């Protein structure tokens, strides 16, 4: 289907597609994974996918409908001689997957960078109890450095570790974004859609 894409590229696209279903309930993750694996490579009829997977076609359709809601799959109504009724042939829109994936990663990166420049460049205070909130200097001052929740003394939080973790996350996201953009570039004008 896409001769200029490697197995590794397809794996990336598959992961992005599955990440779009992450918060969906009522979807069998294994059915989702294997359905995406098929429509990533070729157009396929839902019943054929179900047959290949050995599952109820309804399970496959649930996945396809959710992906359709996300705008990353398209279908064509078809008449085939082996079916008495019209069937639907589904395919994954790779470019749309990359566009959605990039949108999400770019937003995540923005959030991380905002946290690094705003929240983490100021000292924060906490009492040490997990269920209690972390407070800014102003908030800590207002309650005279006692936790408003449990009354313990507030201590300045050492943000070094958290900062390092966030910086690493930002680098990972930049790398993923670079990869997705490069893939989108390579996908270019070729392909069936
Ligand atoms: Zn507390």
Which assembly state applies to the chains in this document? single chain
Which structural class best describes the helix and strand composition?
A: mainly alpha
- Gross CATH architecture of the largest domain: Orthogonal Bundle
Gap from first CA to last CA = 11 Å
CATH homology-level superfamily of the largest domain: Winged helix-like DNA-binding domain superfamily/Winged helix DNA-binding domain
Q: How would you describe this protein?
A:
The chain is mainly α and 193 residues long. It folds into two domains: 7-96, Winged helix-like DNA-binding domain superfamily/Winged helix DNA-binding domain (Arc Repressor Mutant, subunit A, Orthogonal Bundle), CATH 1.10.10.10; 98-187, no CATH class. 53% of the residues lie in helices and 11% in strands. The protein is built from seven helices and six strands. The chain has helices at 7-19, 29-39, 46-53, 57-69, 94-117, 137-142, 160-187; strands at 44-45, 73-78, 87-92, 124-126, 135-136, 155-156. The strands form two sheets. Strands 1-3-2 form a three-stranded antiparallel sheet. A three-stranded antiparallel sheet has the order 5-4-6. Helix 3 crosses helix 4. The longest helix has 28 residues, at 160-187. It is elongated and about 80 Å long. The termini are close together. The mean pLDDT is 92. Zinc ion (ZN) is lined by residues 127, 129, 132, 147, 149-150, 152.
Brief summary:
By secondary structure, this protein is mainly alpha-helical. The protein contains seven helices and six strands, in the order ααβααββαββαβα. Bound molecules: zinc ion.
């Amino acid at each position: 289907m896409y001769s200029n894409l490697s197995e590794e590229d397809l794996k990336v696209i598959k992961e992005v597609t599955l990440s779009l279903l992450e918060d969906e309930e009522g979807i069998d993750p294994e059915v989702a994974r294997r359905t995406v694996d098929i429509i990533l490579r070729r157009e396929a009829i839902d019943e054929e996918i179900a047959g290949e997977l050995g599952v109820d076609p309804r399970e496959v359709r649930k996945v396809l409908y959710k992906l359709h809601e996300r705008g990353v799959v398209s279908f064509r109504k078809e008449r085939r001689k082996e079916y008495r009724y019209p069937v639907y042939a589904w395919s994954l829109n790779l470019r749309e997957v990359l566009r959605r994936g990039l949108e999400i990663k770019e937003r995540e990166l923005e959030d991380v960078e905002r946290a690094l420049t705003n929240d983490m460049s100021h000292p924060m205070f906490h009492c040490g109890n997990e269920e209690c909130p972390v407070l800014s200097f102003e908030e800590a001052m207002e309650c005279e450095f006692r936790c408003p929740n449990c009354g313990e003394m507030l201590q300045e939080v050492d943000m070094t570790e958290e900062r390092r973790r966030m910086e690493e996350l930002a680098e990972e996201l930049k790398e993923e974004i670079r990869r997705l953009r490069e893939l989108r570039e390579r996908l270019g004008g070729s392909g069936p859609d």
